[in-house]
Amino acid sequence: MRIAGHLGLGVLGFVAGVAGSLVQGGWFPLGVLLALGGCAGLFWGGALLTRTRVGAAAPAGGWLLSVLALTVTRPQGDFVYAAGAGSYVYLLGGMTVAVVCATLAPTERPLFALDQRTAR
User: Fold this and answer.
1) Torsion over CA: 115, 54, 2, 5 (sign)
2) Which residues cross the membrane (predicted)?
3) SS3 of 119, please?
C-alpha cells in the first residue's frame, strides 16, 4: 500500500511538472508563482500524508522527470522553456522547494496526536 501511494505521488508530481511548465511561460510573473505554489503544496502534502521524507521526494522525482523531458529541444526546433528569467526561476525554484520540503518533512510526530490526559 505504501509503495502504491508513493507511485501515485510520483505520477501527481509528473502531472504537476507538465502543468507548471505550461503555466509558468503563459502568465509571467504570476504563472511562475502559481506553478511553484502548486509544486510546494504537492511536495509538502506528500510529506504530511506519508509522514516520511520519501513522501516529499516521490512527487519531486516525478516533477524532475517531467521537467527534464520537457527541456529537450525537438528536431523541429520546438521547446517548452524559453531562455528567460521565468523558466530559470521555475526550474531552480522547483528544485529548491523539493529539497526544503524533503528536509523539513515532519517524520517524528503523528498527524493527529491525542493528548494522553484527554484520551482516557
Assistant:
1) positive
2) 30-49, 56-73, 79-105
3) coil
Instruction: Find all residues with CB under 8 Å of 88, minimum gap 6, and list them.
Output: none
Copy the grid coordinates of residue 43.
511536495
- Report the C-alpha gap between 45 and 41 in whole angstroms: 6
Q: What is the pLDDT of residues 6-32, one digit of tens each?
A: 999 999 999 999 999 989 888 878 989
**pTM for this predicted structure:** 0.82
Number of domains in the chain: 1
In a domain, residue 112? The reply is no
**Rounded-to-10 torsion of CA 56, 12, 1, 101:** 10
Domain around 94: 2-103
